[in-house]
UniProtKB/TrEMBL annotation:
<feature type="coiled-coil region">
    <location>
        <begin position="83"/>
        <end position="113"/>
    </location>
</feature>
<feature type="domain" description="HTH merR-type">
    <location>
        <begin position="1"/>
        <end position="69"/>
    </location>
</feature>
<protein>
    <submittedName>
        <fullName>MerR family transcriptional regulator</fullName>
    </submittedName>
</protein>
<dbReference type="Pfam" id="PF13411">
    <property type="entry name" value="MerR_1"/>
</dbReference>
<keyword id="KW-0238">DNA-binding</keyword>
<keyword id="KW-0175">Coiled coil</keyword>
<dbReference type="InterPro" id="IPR009061">
    <property type="entry name" value="DNA-bd_dom_put_sf"/>
</dbReference>
<dbReference type="InterPro" id="IPR047057">
    <property type="entry name" value="MerR_fam"/>
</dbReference>
<dbReference type="InterPro" id="IPR000551">
    <property type="entry name" value="MerR-type_HTH_dom"/>
</dbReference>
Length: 141
């Protein structure tokens, strides 16, 4: 099948497929006489695997690790790595839940400072004065 057909079956864009090929998550397809990529069932299966991992918010590095394990199914040490990877991912999710819970509490507190009856905006005033702990500033500034 062609790339646009594969993209439609999986529910992603052709750019996503090309990106996964470029990064090594998806192995490169052979090319036909017309130089079009020709995808097979193994590409579809791998792409579905990647999509499912991404739906679980796994990073590309985590997915690469799982693919390595999948390629070496008889290696018990690799299976242990899968378990450790999943445990680490769960820990990361727990940390994110805690961060989002704290964020929600901060926003609710901020919302309680709304005083629509007077001219000054309590939300803006509180935003100016409050102390917020930011985990990483690289995405916020």
């Amino acid at each position: 099948m062609k790339i646009n057909e594969l993209a439609k079956v999986v529910g992603c864009s052709t750019e996503t497929i090309r990106f996964y090929e470029k990064t090594g998550l998806l192995f490169r397809p052979e090319r036909g006489a017309n130089n079009y990529r020709i995808y097979h069932k193994k590409h579809l299966e791998r792409l579905l695997f990647i999509r499912n991992c991404r739906a679980l918010e796994m990073s590309h590095d985590e997915i690469k690790t799982l693919i390595t394990i999948m390629v070496n199914p008889n290696n018990q040490a690799e299976h242990d790595n899968a378990h450790q990877l999943l445990q680490a991912h769960l820990q990361h999710i727990d940390e994110r839940i805690e961060e989002l819970t704290n964020l929600r509490q901060q926003l609710m507190k901020l919302q309680n400072h709304c005083h629509s009856s007077n001219q000054s905006c309590g939300i803006l005033q509180e935003l100016t004065e409050m102390s917020v702990t930011v985990k990483s500033t690289k995405n916020h500034l």
